Amino acid sequence: IKAKQVSVNGILAYDGGQKIFPFTDEITVQGNTVIYKEYIYVLLNKPQGVLSATKDTNTPTVIDLLPAEFQHFKPFPVGRLDKDTEGLLLLTNDGQLAHQLLAPRNHVPKTYYAKVEGLVTTKDITSFEEGVILDDGYQTLPAKLSILQAGPSSEVELTIYEGKFHQVKRMFLVLGKTVTFLQRIAMGPLTLDPSLKPGMYRELSETEVKMLQEYPSKGK
Ligand code: URA
Question: Which pLDDT belongs to residue 220?
Fold first, then answer.
Protein backbone atom coordinates (compact mmCIF):
# COMPACT_ATOMS: atom_id res chain seq x y z
CA ILE A 1 0.00 0.00 0.00
CA LYS A 2 2.87 2.37 0.85
CA ALA A 3 4.45 1.59 -2.53
CA LYS A 4 1.13 2.56 -4.18
CA GLN A 5 0.68 -0.90 -5.67
CA VAL A 6 -2.76 -1.70 -4.27
CA SER A 7 -6.12 -0.51 -5.57
CA VAL A 8 -9.65 -1.05 -4.33
CA ASN A 9 -12.25 -0.90 -7.10
CA GLY A 10 -9.77 0.95 -9.28
CA ILE A 11 -8.89 3.55 -6.64
CA LEU A 12 -5.39 3.59 -5.19
CA ALA A 13 -5.46 2.45 -1.56
CA TYR A 14 -3.55 4.53 0.98
CA ASP A 15 -4.85 3.19 4.29
CA GLY A 16 -4.11 -0.38 5.46
CA GLY A 17 -7.05 -0.10 7.82
CA GLN A 18 -9.53 0.46 4.99
CA LYS A 19 -12.50 -1.87 5.31
CA ILE A 20 -13.51 -3.81 2.22
CA PHE A 21 -16.13 -6.40 1.24
CA PRO A 22 -13.99 -9.40 0.30
CA PHE A 23 -16.54 -10.97 -2.06
CA THR A 24 -17.66 -7.84 -3.91
CA ASP A 25 -14.82 -5.30 -3.88
CA GLU A 26 -12.11 -5.76 -6.47
CA ILE A 27 -8.62 -5.60 -5.01
CA THR A 28 -5.67 -5.40 -7.37
CA VAL A 29 -1.96 -5.55 -6.62
CA GLN A 30 0.23 -4.24 -9.42
CA GLY A 31 -2.81 -4.54 -11.65
CA ASN A 32 -3.46 -8.21 -10.79
CA THR A 33 -6.80 -9.06 -9.24
CA VAL A 34 -6.62 -10.78 -5.86
CA ILE A 35 -9.19 -13.56 -5.42
CA TYR A 36 -10.34 -13.83 -1.84
CA LYS A 37 -11.04 -17.23 -0.39
CA GLU A 38 -11.59 -18.41 3.11
CA TYR A 39 -11.25 -22.16 2.66
CA ILE A 40 -8.85 -24.47 0.94
CA TYR A 41 -9.60 -28.05 -0.15
CA VAL A 42 -6.66 -30.20 -1.16
CA LEU A 43 -6.67 -33.77 -2.44
CA LEU A 44 -3.38 -35.40 -1.47
CA ASN A 45 -2.08 -38.78 -2.51
CA LYS A 46 -0.45 -39.48 0.84
CA PRO A 47 2.85 -41.31 0.47
CA GLN A 48 4.08 -43.85 3.01
CA GLY A 49 6.30 -42.55 5.81
CA VAL A 50 4.42 -39.35 6.62
CA LEU A 51 2.01 -38.79 9.48
CA SER A 52 -1.64 -37.72 9.11
CA ALA A 53 -1.12 -34.89 11.58
CA THR A 54 -0.46 -31.18 11.42
CA LYS A 55 2.75 -31.16 13.46
CA ASP A 56 5.36 -33.61 14.67
CA THR A 57 8.86 -33.03 15.95
CA ASN A 58 10.46 -36.15 14.46
CA THR A 59 8.46 -37.31 11.46
CA PRO A 60 7.27 -35.32 8.44
CA THR A 61 3.53 -34.72 8.32
CA VAL A 62 1.12 -34.41 5.41
CA ILE A 63 1.10 -30.64 5.98
CA ASP A 64 4.87 -30.50 5.40
CA LEU A 65 4.21 -31.76 1.85
CA LEU A 66 2.17 -28.67 0.97
CA PRO A 67 3.58 -25.39 -0.34
CA ALA A 68 3.63 -22.33 1.94
CA GLU A 69 0.72 -20.68 0.12
CA PHE A 70 -1.48 -23.69 1.03
CA GLN A 71 -0.10 -24.00 4.58
CA HIS A 72 -1.05 -20.36 5.12
CA PHE A 73 -4.72 -21.48 5.30
CA LYS A 74 -3.90 -23.86 8.17
CA PRO A 75 -5.41 -26.98 6.62
CA PHE A 76 -5.72 -30.23 8.57
CA PRO A 77 -6.29 -33.81 7.44
CA VAL A 78 -9.90 -35.04 7.35
CA GLY A 79 -9.39 -38.30 9.21
CA ARG A 80 -6.22 -40.29 9.41
CA LEU A 81 -4.30 -42.82 7.40
CA ASP A 82 -1.58 -44.89 9.08
CA LYS A 83 2.03 -43.89 8.53
CA ASP A 84 2.49 -46.84 6.14
CA THR A 85 -0.84 -46.31 4.31
CA GLU A 86 -0.92 -44.38 1.04
CA GLY A 87 -3.66 -42.75 -0.90
CA LEU A 88 -6.51 -40.32 -0.84
CA LEU A 89 -6.44 -37.80 1.98
CA LEU A 90 -8.48 -34.63 2.00
CA LEU A 91 -6.90 -31.60 3.65
CA THR A 92 -8.97 -28.54 4.45
CA ASN A 93 -9.54 -25.75 6.94
CA ASP A 94 -13.32 -26.11 6.52
CA GLY A 95 -14.26 -27.52 9.92
CA GLN A 96 -17.90 -27.96 9.03
CA LEU A 97 -17.17 -30.08 5.96
CA ALA A 98 -14.62 -32.14 7.89
CA HIS A 99 -17.17 -32.77 10.63
CA GLN A 100 -19.82 -33.78 8.09
CA LEU A 101 -17.47 -36.30 6.48
CA LEU A 102 -16.20 -37.71 9.76
CA ALA A 103 -19.43 -37.84 11.80
CA PRO A 104 -19.99 -41.57 12.48
CA ARG A 105 -23.74 -41.24 11.88
CA ASN A 106 -23.10 -40.18 8.25
CA HIS A 107 -21.37 -43.49 7.45
CA VAL A 108 -19.29 -41.97 4.67
CA PRO A 109 -17.84 -44.90 2.70
CA LYS A 110 -14.10 -45.27 2.39
CA THR A 111 -12.68 -47.70 -0.16
CA TYR A 112 -9.25 -49.26 0.14
CA TYR A 113 -7.11 -51.30 -2.20
CA ALA A 114 -5.10 -53.83 -0.19
CA LYS A 115 -2.54 -56.55 -0.69
CA VAL A 116 -3.13 -59.30 1.82
CA GLU A 117 -0.85 -62.15 2.83
CA GLY A 118 -2.94 -65.30 2.49
CA LEU A 119 -5.79 -66.61 0.35
CA VAL A 120 -8.86 -64.36 0.51
CA THR A 121 -12.05 -66.37 -0.10
CA THR A 122 -15.76 -65.84 -0.67
CA LYS A 123 -16.22 -66.86 2.97
CA ASP A 124 -14.30 -63.69 3.87
CA ILE A 125 -16.72 -61.65 1.76
CA THR A 126 -19.58 -63.06 3.86
CA SER A 127 -17.72 -62.48 7.14
CA PHE A 128 -17.17 -58.80 6.32
CA GLU A 129 -20.76 -58.48 5.06
CA GLU A 130 -21.99 -59.76 8.41
CA GLY A 131 -19.45 -57.78 10.44
CA VAL A 132 -16.50 -59.19 12.35
CA ILE A 133 -15.58 -58.80 16.01
CA LEU A 134 -12.32 -56.91 16.40
CA ASP A 135 -9.67 -57.58 19.07
CA ASP A 136 -11.32 -55.05 21.42
CA GLY A 137 -14.77 -56.68 21.12
CA TYR A 138 -16.19 -54.11 18.68
CA GLN A 139 -18.44 -55.55 15.97
CA THR A 140 -17.80 -53.87 12.62
CA LEU A 141 -20.61 -52.62 10.41
CA PRO A 142 -21.27 -54.53 7.18
CA ALA A 143 -18.39 -53.92 4.77
CA LYS A 144 -18.08 -54.73 1.09
CA LEU A 145 -15.14 -56.90 0.04
CA SER A 146 -14.25 -57.50 -3.61
CA ILE A 147 -11.54 -59.99 -4.49
CA LEU A 148 -9.34 -58.76 -7.34
CA GLN A 149 -6.86 -61.60 -7.15
CA ALA A 150 -6.88 -64.65 -4.88
CA GLY A 151 -3.69 -66.54 -4.15
CA PRO A 152 -0.99 -67.02 -1.49
CA SER A 153 -0.88 -63.23 -1.64
CA SER A 154 -4.26 -61.68 -2.54
CA GLU A 155 -5.43 -58.32 -3.82
CA VAL A 156 -8.74 -56.86 -2.72
CA GLU A 157 -10.89 -53.78 -2.51
CA LEU A 158 -12.73 -53.14 0.73
CA THR A 159 -15.34 -50.47 1.44
CA ILE A 160 -16.03 -49.62 5.07
CA TYR A 161 -18.61 -47.19 6.42
CA GLU A 162 -16.82 -46.21 9.63
CA GLY A 163 -13.26 -45.52 10.66
CA LYS A 164 -11.93 -47.28 13.71
CA PHE A 165 -8.22 -47.22 14.52
CA HIS A 166 -6.27 -49.45 12.04
CA GLN A 167 -9.66 -50.81 10.99
CA VAL A 168 -8.79 -52.53 7.71
CA LYS A 169 -5.66 -54.18 9.10
CA ARG A 170 -7.54 -55.33 12.21
CA MET A 171 -10.45 -56.69 10.16
CA PHE A 172 -8.10 -58.91 8.16
CA LEU A 173 -6.29 -59.98 11.31
CA VAL A 174 -9.60 -61.39 12.55
CA LEU A 175 -9.52 -63.62 9.46
CA GLY A 176 -5.92 -64.56 10.23
CA LYS A 177 -4.51 -62.51 7.35
CA THR A 178 -2.00 -59.68 7.27
CA VAL A 179 -2.35 -56.54 5.17
CA THR A 180 1.02 -55.86 3.53
CA PHE A 181 0.03 -52.82 1.47
CA LEU A 182 -2.85 -50.43 1.98
CA GLN A 183 -4.02 -47.57 -0.20
CA ARG A 184 -7.21 -45.53 0.15
CA ILE A 185 -8.77 -45.04 -3.27
CA ALA A 186 -12.08 -43.34 -2.43
CA MET A 187 -13.88 -41.38 0.27
CA GLY A 188 -17.53 -40.53 -0.29
CA PRO A 189 -17.79 -39.12 -3.81
CA LEU A 190 -14.06 -38.40 -4.08
CA THR A 191 -11.75 -40.83 -5.83
CA LEU A 192 -7.98 -40.93 -5.99
CA ASP A 193 -6.84 -39.19 -9.13
CA PRO A 194 -4.69 -41.72 -11.07
CA SER A 195 -2.49 -38.87 -12.32
CA LEU A 196 -1.52 -37.95 -8.73
CA LYS A 197 1.61 -39.86 -7.76
CA PRO A 198 2.25 -40.42 -4.02
CA GLY A 199 3.27 -37.11 -2.45
CA MET A 200 1.39 -35.09 -5.08
CA TYR A 201 -1.66 -32.96 -4.44
CA ARG A 202 -4.13 -30.70 -6.16
CA GLU A 203 -6.87 -28.33 -5.09
CA LEU A 204 -10.41 -29.64 -5.51
CA SER A 205 -12.51 -28.05 -8.23
CA GLU A 206 -15.56 -26.02 -7.22
CA THR A 207 -17.75 -28.88 -8.48
CA GLU A 208 -15.93 -31.40 -6.28
CA VAL A 209 -16.28 -29.15 -3.21
CA LYS A 210 -19.98 -28.75 -3.89
CA MET A 211 -20.37 -32.50 -4.36
CA LEU A 212 -18.70 -33.09 -0.98
CA GLN A 213 -20.77 -30.45 0.79
CA GLU A 214 -23.98 -31.98 -0.52
CA TYR A 215 -22.75 -35.53 -0.13
CA PRO A 216 -24.24 -37.29 2.84
CA SER A 217 -27.72 -35.90 2.25
CA LYS A 218 -27.95 -35.90 -1.55
CA GLY A 219 -25.20 -37.85 -3.27
CA LYS A 220 -25.49 -41.11 -1.34
N1 URA B 1 -7.42 -48.97 8.02
C2 URA B 1 -6.16 -49.20 8.44
O3 URA B 1 -5.85 -50.24 9.00
N4 URA B 1 -5.23 -48.26 8.22
C5 URA B 1 -5.49 -47.09 7.59
O6 URA B 1 -4.59 -46.28 7.40
C7 URA B 1 -6.81 -46.86 7.16
C8 URA B 1 -7.76 -47.82 7.38
Answer: 46
Distance in angstroms (rounded) separating the CA atoms of residues 110 and 79? 11
What is the tens place of the pLDDT at every residue in 27-64? 999 999 998 889 999 999 999 999 999 999 999 999 99
Q: How large is the average pLDDT for residues 17-33? A: 93
Mutate to test the pocket of ligand 1, among 81, 84, 177 (most ligand atoms within 8 A of CB): 81
Q: What is the rounded average pLDDT for all residues in the chain?
A: 95
- The CB of 169 under 6 Å from ligand 1? The reply is yes
The pTM of this model reads 0.90
Give me the pLDDT at residue 35, please: 85
Q: Is 164 close to ligand 1, i.e. is its CB under 6 Å away?
A: no
Sign for the pseudo-dihedral over CA of 122, 128, 130, 135: positive
Residue 195 identity (one-letter amino acid):
S
Instruction: Give the catalytic positions in this structure.
Output: 82
Strands (E), 57-193: 76-77, 86-92, 110-117, 144-149, 153-160, 178-187, 190-191
Looking at residue 68, its amino acid is A
Mean pLDDT of 128-139: 98
Phi-psi region of 80 (alpha: psi -120 to 50; beta: other; left: phi over 0): beta
Is 102:163 a contact under the CB 8 Å cutoff?
yes
Q: How far is the CA of 63 from the centre of ligand 1 (A)?
A: 19
